[in-house]
């Protein structure tokens, strides 16, 4: 901190001293700059350097008194001594943090009669008081600068928090809010000092503010000025010395929280159609059709056998559409109770915001194996498509804008004819449908697909140097793979896991018996059983086995129990 920052104050002090003592005053900073100078008797021509008299005070940090400059060594050796109009000087250092940061001096011109040297003690005391005042001012300025820096840093931190924060004082008036809060509620005007009742016309928030409870957490839905908020609001009393001084409200958007989590955990978030290139005409047509549907924004039905790239195509469609910045939610209708499916789709009575329709509003919902969804839920989904409204939401005028991508491995026309699938939903979905061709229909792609899977699985098992011979690859590419990618991955994983050395030959593959002529398809259960037996024999942990197979621990325990491997 330099005295230049308080130059105006230094000038005021120098003029005050000069007026009181009827003598000229000079103040310098640590860089020997003259920041204040009076010219009552002496013009502003006094040179200031490290080797000058006042420069010595700054260097030594000691008081200096010169009554007659002809007797002072520095003045005697000065090249300008013959021209100097100063005869005497009293100078004191300006100390800050125990070091000199400047100096203040009284200048006595030649031939001037003054009694100042007769009462030098009081003069020094007066100058030192002025020096202390300047030091104090400097300290105040540094403290203020530090306070502003700290305030700026804290505001930056608070404004990077994903939660909206609103602070109320003891009269429930706004004392602070961060940028996220203003964004959540589309507020552009200054709300500092306004009462919370003027900002929120909502009974949930009003009751929280009025409640004497120290901490409250509630789900919240608000819609105003074309902006809606779905999430959680929490209230915490601000207590100082045992007394309540205010309230802090924290708003957390459920959609933003889900988006942040998905962005970290979702390995499909960067998928694009570029990664779904194909040389087989049937797959090329499917991809081009998916691109058209993605741009149109229509609801889509994807038909496929099990074990194909439903997720990859659905997510590429979402990422290729104008909904790409919104949420993508996947749910599978297989193996779940009707109650679980209902809760997953609409949320629970306690947490309605956790339903897929709320999480993915303005985004996309992928429903795998839609044929497993009960008829009464199919009717609710149809209502969402027709009326763009969530039938379970109680909030009036709340729009639900969902793009559905539905998958089935069954013939929905046949199911509809048997009254096992909603006729109108089937009709609407069939307007925009596509079929993913099985691996056996993609002979041109199969060699590249197999080599890509081998690379991934070899790295996963710590065998990145493992190579498959040309004959081995030809056998794999010649198989029909009725189980598609599920069968392919499990087969390759078994081979790679059991591979010894750095090469896999034709005999290594045939020794597993996967491709015997009498077997028209690979038995996935046999592959799994062999893989499990090998990993159990190698004394791998349950967690490691589940991770290798891409299944949950609960599923693993069922398979181990079934095969008597526990």
Automatic annotation (TrEMBL):
Keywords: ATP-binding, DNA-binding, Nucleotide-binding, Transcription, Transcription regulation
Residue intervals of the Sigma-54 factor interaction domain: 276-497
Highest taxon of the lineage: Bacteria
InterPro entries documented for this protein: AAA_lid_NorR, GAF, GAF-like_dom_sf, Homeodomain-like_sf, P-loop_NTPase, Resolvase_HTH_dom, Sigma_54_int
UniProt keyword rRNA-binding, yes or no: no
Segments traversing the membrane: none
A Pfam family: Sigma54_activat
Keyword flag Lyase: no
UniProt cross-references to PANTHER family, sorted A to Z: SIGMA L-DEPENDENT TRANSCRIPTIONAL REGULATOR YPLP-RELATED, TRANSCRIPTIONAL REGULATORY PROTEIN
Protein name, per record: Transcriptional regulator with PAS, ATPase and Fis domain
Species of provenance: Youngiibacter multivorans
Lineage: Bacteria, Bacillati, Bacillota, Clostridia, Eubacteriales
């Amino acid at each position: 901190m330099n005295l230049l920052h308080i130059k105006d104050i230094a000038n005021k002090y120098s003029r005050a001293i000069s007026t009181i003592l009827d003598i000229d005053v000079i103040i310098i900073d640590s860089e020997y700059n003259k920041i204040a100078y009076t010219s009552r008797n002496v013009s502003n021509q006094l040179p200031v350097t490290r080797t000058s008299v006042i420069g010595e005070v700054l260097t030594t940090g000691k008081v200096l008194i010169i009554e007659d400059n002809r007797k002072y060594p520095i003045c005697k050796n000065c090249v300008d001594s013959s021209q100097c109009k100063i005869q005497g000087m009293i100078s004191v250092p300006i100390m800050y943090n125990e070091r000199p940061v400047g100096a203040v001096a009284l200048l006595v011109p030649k031939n001037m009669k003054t009694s100042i040297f007769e009462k030098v003690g009081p003069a020094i005391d007066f100058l030192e008081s002025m020096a202390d005042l300047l030091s104090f001012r400097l300290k105040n300025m540094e403290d203020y600068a530090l306070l502003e820096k700290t305030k700026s840093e804290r505001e930056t931190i608070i404004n990077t928090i994903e939660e909206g924060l609103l602070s109320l004082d003891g009269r429930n008036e706004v004392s602070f809010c961060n940028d996220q809060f203003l964004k959540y509620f589309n507020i552009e005007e200054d709300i500092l000092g306004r009462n919370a009742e003027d900002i929120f016309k909502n009974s949930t928030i009003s009751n929280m503010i009025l409640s004497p409870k120290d901490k409250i957490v509630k789900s919240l839905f608000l819609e105003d000025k074309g902006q809606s908020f779905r999430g959680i609001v929490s209230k915490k009393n601000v207590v100082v010395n045992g007394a309540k001084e205010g309230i802090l409200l924290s708003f957390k958007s459920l959609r933003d929280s889900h988006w942040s989590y998905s962005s970290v955990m979702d390995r499909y978030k960067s998928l694009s159609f570029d990664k779904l290139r194909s040389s087989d005409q049937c797959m090329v047509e499917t991809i081009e059709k998916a691109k058209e549907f993605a741009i149109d924004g229509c609801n889509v039905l994807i038909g496929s056998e099990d074990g194909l790239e439903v997720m990859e195509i659905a997510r590429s469609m979402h990422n290729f559409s104008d909904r790409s910045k919104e949420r993508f939610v996947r749910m599978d209708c297989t193996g779940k109770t009707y109650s679980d499916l209902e809760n997953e789709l609409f949320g629970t009575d306690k947490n309605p915001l956790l339903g897929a329709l709320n999480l993915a509003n303005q985004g996309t919902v992928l429903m795998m194996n839609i044929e497993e969804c009960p008829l009464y839920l199919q009717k609710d989904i149809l209502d969402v498509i027709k009326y763009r409204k969530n039938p379970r939401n109680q909030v009036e005028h709340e729009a639900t804008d969902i793009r559905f991508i539905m998958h089935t491995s069954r013939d929905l026309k046949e199911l509809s004819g048997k009254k096992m699938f909603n006729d109108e939903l089937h009709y609407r979905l069939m307007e925009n449908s596509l079929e993913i061709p099985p691996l056996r229909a993609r002979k041109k792609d199969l060699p590249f697909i197999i080599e890509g899977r081998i690379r991934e699985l070899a790295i996963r098992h710590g065998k990145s140097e493992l190579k498959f011979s040309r004959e081995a690859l030809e056998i794999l590419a010649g198989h029909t793979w009725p189980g598609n990618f599920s069968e392919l991955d499990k087969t390759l994983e078994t081979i790679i896991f059991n591979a010894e050395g750095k090469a896999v030959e034709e005999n290594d593959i045939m020794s597993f018996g996967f491709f015997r002529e009498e077997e028209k398809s690979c038995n996935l259960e046999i592959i799994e059983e062999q893989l499990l037996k090998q990993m159990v024999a190698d004394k791998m942990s349950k967690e490691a086995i589940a991770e290798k197979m891409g299944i949950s621990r609960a599923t693993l325990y069922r398979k181990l129990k079934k095969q008597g491997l526990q």
